[in-house]
Amino acid sequence: MIVKTLLAALVAGLIAGVFMTAAQELRVVPLILHAEEYEVKEPAAEPPAATEGQQQHSSLTHSSVIGEMLSALSPVTPAYAHEGEHEDEGGIMFGMSRFSGTLLANLVAGAGFGLLLAGASLVFNYPVTLRNGALWGACGWLAIHLLPAIGLPPELPGFPAADLHDRQIWWIATIVLSVAGLYLVVLRGEIIAKIIGLVLIAAPHAYGAPQPSDISSPVPAVLGAEFAVAALATTLAFWIVLGVISGYLNDRFLKSA
Amino acid sequence: MATTTVSSIPLSLNDRITTAILALLIGGFLVFGAGLANSAVLHDTAHDVRHSYGFPCH
Questions:
Q1: Which of A2, A188, A211, B27 sits 20 to 30 Å CA-CA off A164?
Q2: In B, which residues are within 8 Å of A80 by CB distance?
Q3: How many A×B Cβ pairs under 8 Å?
């Protein structure tokens, strides 16, 4: 039974990951590629050296000869994510094309989010079903994407940003507080619980997200606005698909047992 | 149609806690690897995904 529950979450996540890849290729990835043209032109606007320094410790050097041959045959350009720092380039795992890398990462992230959704529903003892799957998904999106985006909107490559580590800490803390807050607001009846929930949701924003000291950027603002909306829209679609499929699989395979 | 009684994930309390912990640990590990891990290879592979999910990235 334990395995079945985990498998259902995993399968739902993988399916949602494939869906997410298609959605990203339509709208989000073209905007990232467009923004990278500006990022390359003006390497002065690269993020602070500290984060780059940490990235250079990869033990893997350039992809193998086979990998290079494969990527040469691929119609998709490899993700040299930051053209300015070629010699320290990590390169994509197994010499895959940029698209395969995105697909793989989406599958991994989708499976991860699927398991987190199942875990949350078990902790709160409130099963995900076909009927409430979309709502579960919407709450997941609120907690993991929209609420953190208030402080740290989705960024394009080349956007100015504060120290990576600070932002990651703030981001994780915001998600944990938002999940707890949403649980109190949505699933608990007591007025006092709802009030505490709202306080928890608001707390990280009152504290404030780490912001860059200099907000000038070589990437046009219009691209950034388009990207922020596209990123939030695709993740919302991803979460609703994930919730509905999770609910369907739970109804279909777990109830009968 | 019967009104759905949503009270039955057919797991005992112990199993429920075990499953929840397993799901959260594995899920957290996968999301961390795809979204946050500080390795150049992982970063470049997942680059577009990290940006599109709004993960804090470089």
A1: B27
A2: 44
A3: 207
